[in-house]
Amino acid sequence: MNEHCVNLFSQLTPKITSAEQISELDVPYQASLSTSWGSIPFPPVDNPSFSFIDLFSGIGGFRIAMQGIGGKCVFSSEWDSHAKKTYEANFGEVPYGDIRKIPEESIPDHDVLCAGFPCQPFSLAGVSSRNSLNISHGFACETQGTLFFDIARIIKVKKPKIVFLENVRNLVRHDGGKTFDVVKNTIESLGYSFSFQVIDSSPLVPQKRVRCYMVCIRGGGDFTFPQVQGDPLPLKGILEDEVDDSFTISTKLWEGHQRRTERNIARGTGFTAHCADIEKPSNTIVARYGKDGKECLIPQENKNPRMLSPRECARLQGFPESFIIPVAKTAAYRQFGNSVALPVIKKIAETLIPYI
Questions:
Q1: Which residues pair with 112 in a beta bridge?
Q2: What is the pLDDT of residues 11-44, one digit of tens each?
Q3: Predicted pLDDT of residue 10
Q4: Cβ contacts of 163 within 8 Å, gap of 6 or more
Q5: How much is the pTM?
Q6: Are 300 and 306 in contact (CB under 8 A)?
Q7: What mean pLDDT comes out for the span 111-139?
Q8: Alpha-carbon span 220 to 195, nearest angstrom
């Protein structure tokens, strides 16, 4: 590990106290929940061929994909209470909480470490908003930016065969590429090869979601990402025939979108809010979608445009129809905006099988 990485790793790796260990590990969660799987859409697989852990698990996009190729989840972690509720409804398990408070030695051994670690400190929108508010971004963001180093400390002790990560594409060029160099050099210093690919999900789901996927193999070895090719899928394929009028945005909001769009086009910067072309993929759905829906507004005849429903957002990310959405729509929008494009994860996971 080069000197810069060593300094960052030592500075940002959390120091865990015994009191913090008790606060997380004393909660019964996974160990004491009922093992009756009759009503659970995605129970553990029978006769698993490998094990994995699900860090920053959100609502379980990684988990569905990894179970789909025969994996057993032996540990999950997520700090958002609403996401935990959704995860429990679909997998029969409540993830442990804040990974910063969980000692790496207590995490079960596993073959694959999966993590879609928080992206807001590295995303273009996140960097822009943090700059405007004079808030740190990237690794300087102490709340979310340093969570990569929790992944590193777990890798260092548990030594999984494969590390499978996902983040925004801006991670590659954040801070002139220095952030990505730290990620790559840290992983390689722990004895892993490091391969990455920036992939657009739109041939697999009707959404232009471009993300950076990273696959790291213990002991080295080249990894070739699968090709994600084909025509972009049209948004109309996942739309409901009828939705409640509660999804139609107000005249005040729509007029405000139009005014800001005209102003931002004139000055050449800022967001624009147009009705979506349902013959094309949607724009990227983000965690703030529930605020005003500007990323994707569906045109309606003789009405203001409407927002997508939570079920339509689930489809945009490739979640099965059997996936349960037990939370209110505001929380659901945030969860799907933060989630992974499940079919992309599944396609890469299938390619991992020979390495496991």
A1: 52, 162
A2: 444 443 333 332 344 443 454 455 577 789 999 9
A3: 44
A4: 112, 113, 115, 151, 155, 187, 192, 214, 215, 216
A5: 0.85
A6: yes
A7: 55
A8: 10
Catalogue all structural domains in the chain, each as residue range(s) with its CATH number.
Answer: 3-231+336-355 (3.40.50.150), 235-319 (3.90.120.10)
Cα–Cα dist 90/99, whole Å = 21
Furthest-apart CA atoms within the chain: distance in Å: 63
Whether 132 shows a pLDDT value over 50: the answer reads: no
Give the Cβ contact number of residue 133 at 10 Å: 7
**Mean pLDDT, the chain, whole residue set:** 85
What is the percent of the chain with per-residue pLDDT over 90, rounded to a whole number?
A: 70
pLDDT tens across 37-52, in order?
778 999 999 999 999 9
The amino acid at 23: S
Mean pLDDT within 309-321: 98
Q: Cα–Cα distance between 100 and 318 in angstroms, integer? A: 30
Tokens for 110? 């596993």
Element (H, E) at 52: strand 50-55
Q: List CB contacts of 97: < 8 A, sequence separation 6 or more.
A: 24, 27, 77, 78, 79
Listed in order, strand segments (DSSP E) in 117-194 are 162-168
Instruction: Count the neighbouring beta carbons within 10 Å of the beta carbon of residue 57.
Output: 28
Token pair listed for 79: 């700090």
Give the span between the Cα atoms of 142 and 23, in whole angstroms.
21
CA 207 to chain centre: 15
Which are the catalytic amino acids? Answer: 119
Residue 17: predicted pLDDT: 39
So what's the pLDDT on residue 175? 81
User: Sheet holding 71-76: strands in order across?
Assistant: 71-76, 50-55, 112-115, 162-168, 210-217, 195-200
pLDDT at 147: 85
How far apart are the C-alpha atoms of 201 and 210, rounded to whole Å? 6
For residue 121, count CB atoms less than 10 angstroms from its CB and return exposed for 0-12, middle for 13-18, buried for 19 or more.
buried
Task: Kindly write down the DSSP assignment for every residue of 90-104, as one continuous string.
Answer: HHS-PPBS-GGGS-G
Q: 276-280 contacts: CB < 8 A, separation 24 or more? A: 276/235, 277/235, 278/234, 278/235, 278/236, 278/239, 279/234, 279/235, 279/236, 280/232, 280/234, 280/235
